[in-house]
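Ticket #4471: structure output looks truncated?

Reporter: J.K.
Steps to reproduce: submitted the chain below (161 residues) through the standard prediction queue, then opened the result file.
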Amino acid sequence: MILINYSVVDDNGKPEVSVALTDFTAFVGFRPPQQIKEFFDAVPEFAALFNSSQKQSIESAVKDDSKAKEALKSLFDTAIHLDPSKIKDTVEKLNQKLESSGPEGTFGQVDDSKALAQIWKKHGKIFGSKDVGLIVTTFLMNLIQLKPGQGCWILAGKFCK
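Returned output as attached by the reporter:
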């Protein structure tokens, strides 16, 4: 039996928990709107992927947290449906920028710019320059780095934070 477009919706979602057995890096949950706005300001190649209304929605969500879910959903939906040629062009521009300007010159003054650069390069080699995951994870998701014994969790049904 082959199931096409099959999904299971769990009416009783459960929290997700991870505990690192070794050094572990992951993208967990969406970044706060303030951080995404900072990427819009610092990374014009990223900002160019979205329309002015979406950028304004993120700015509004910075001031009013109740608007975050819809703003993040809109960005995510746009990002995952980007034309592969647009993704490739953006990734290649950012690769060149990373080589010439380094992590902070590419990703801005975020706390995790060096770690983002390492992961960007690694995932770019593995998945290629047409992988939308590079854009989504780098700019929209929280990067966490755990040591053995450390853990993280996400509440059931949480879209952001």
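Triage note (M.O.): checked the attachment and the full token line is present. The chain is about 55% helix and 15% strand.
Status: closed, working as intended.
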